[in-house]
């Protein structure tokens, strides 16, 4: 892992990571044949490039020739919990060849990046909690607070998307207290459909990203023909794009 600022810092960062995260770095770098870059967001070359995952203050940009972890504040503020999260995004893309969702129209860029991020989180949070168990308390508190704000001023497909992704995450990884908060929120909505049934169908498709997208977007009534899937072709070290 190389920091764009100075070599010295990245060795230190790498050595300070827990063994499990160093292992993720090694596996990703061995797979792609280049080092993961740590870079301030302000240094991004091509600002118009669709930003992959815009999270709190760190995000990842997995390209076929470059893997970047971008941060907005100080590199010292990046915790093991956040490194684990971003490295899992990169590991799923490069090592496990899980395709990413891309819009056919640039205008759909930001909303698509957000949806792609949460589709990945449905799997990533489970793995991240295993890598960094100490994150569980804050994780539960954040989701409980999130459910308390339901329906988040949303309606239509955006509401359905939030409901099904957070339902899948809460149901699989959260405490009974957080599940109760979810139950209260859903009850108050008096939904004309069964979120439990829709989530069950989506969960059964989770191992295949394409099927998972089709299932979730079918429930949200989002037309899948507005999107591509982009997959990393390890053998030829390039991106492959295809219809859903
Ligand atoms: Zn993420």
Secondary-structure map:
Blueprint: E1 2-3, H1 7-16, H2 19-32, E2 36-40, E3 58-62, E4 67-71, H3 80-95, E5 100-103, H4 109-131, H5 136-148, H6 156-173, H7 176-189, H8 195-204, H9 209-220, E6 227-233, E7 238-243
Parallel strand pairs: 1-2, 2-4
Antiparallel strand pairs: 3-4, 5-6, 6-7
Helix pairs in contact: 2-3, 3-4, 4-6, 5-7, 6-7, 6-8, 6-9, 8-9
Bound molecules: zinc ion.
Task: Give a short synopsis of this structure.
The protein is built from nine helices and seven strands, in the order E-H-H-E-E-E-H-E-H-H-H-H-H-H-E-E.
Q: Describe the biggest sheet?
A: 4 strands, mixed
Termini gap: 33 Å
**H/E series:** EHHEEEHEHHHHHHEE
Shape assignment: globular
Residue share in helices?
40-55%
Number of beta strands: 7
Radius of gyration, in Å, reads 18 Å
Ranges where pLDDT stays below 50 over 5 or more residues in a row are: 4-8, 49-54
Helix/strand-derived class? Answer: alpha/beta
Strand content: 5-15%
Ligand species: zinc ion
Number of helices: 9
Mean pLDDT: 91
User: Order of strands side by side in the largest beta sheet?
Assistant: 1-2-4-3
